[in-house]
Amino acid sequence: MKVEIFALGCLLTVAAAIEVNNIQQLEAAKKGNDKVITLKNIQVPAGQSLNLETNLKPGTTVEFAGRITFGHQNWDGPLVRIKGKNLNIIGKPGHVIDGEGHRWWDHKGQRGSKKPNAIYVQLENSKVNGLYLKNAPAWGFSVNGCKDVDFTNINVDNKDGHTKGALNTDGFGIAASRNVKIMNSRVNNQDDCLALQSDCDHIYFDNNVCEGGHGIAVIGGYGNPKPITNIFIRGCQVIKNNIGIRVKTMRGGKGLIKGVTFDNIVLKDISDTGIMIMGNYYNGGPTGEPTNGCPITDLTINNVRGNVLNNGTNVRIVVASDASNWKWNSNVQGGKQKRECKGMPKGVKVPC
Would you indicate the residue range of the signal peptide (predicted)? Predict the structure, then answer.
């Protein structure tokens, strides 16, 4: 429906909007002609996704308002599913997407009972702005198959999980995506702040704050052998994580990591390792000798600085002989435990 307002001698056209207050109204709203759909104080039944995937027309704005909640059930999720083209997804002031993760947390993460991931996103030519996700049971944002999408001012707030048994609550997981930007956002969680995996190109992670988790990770050679290329992680703060930044490939894995840049990264009170570049990940940790097959090339570490706590390690590197063309400029201090550094390309000076 088109709404026309006559003001000061001018005829103004305002996009029609509809407010959805229960899940039963949602399908009709998506099929209507309203350009703005406001989801307010919705309670989503257990075992069901808030479906912003089917029948959502290009050009639609979806607003989250009030408190969005979900019934409890042990399942994979996601709690919210967003898919489409030319969409504008907005979090209105005061809203919260409340996963109430404490109902699932058991100190075991993926090894415990089934826990739903929170928000699955598969968008093209779209914007996601201002969403506040609180206490996700498992992963926060699963970004998969996205192209030309901007995420700005996102808040993934799982700080309650530090004392209530949360685990494997990654902030942003990205795979199979092109030209995705995550900017001016904050993650407080119990796993990777950013977990960037295979088949990604031109991903930008700018001016974000990561607190309490496992740092920023680029992960190659895990399952899908498609390459990871042109990754820019810039102007971020990593605070009280166990790892600051890392690039890791799986032992025996295939693929390519090329053109990863970490620039102007501040590390604060890192407990384990400030900068970690590893080619021997297996069963959840570094094990044995690194293998060729997923080379780390054109890696730039520039102005990565800050502190590691006394029992930690400033820099640790274990990579195979196919690593090449690295540029390194870091100043990470404080860690007293020296760990191995081997496999760096010739001519690269790393302060291990």
Answer: 1-17
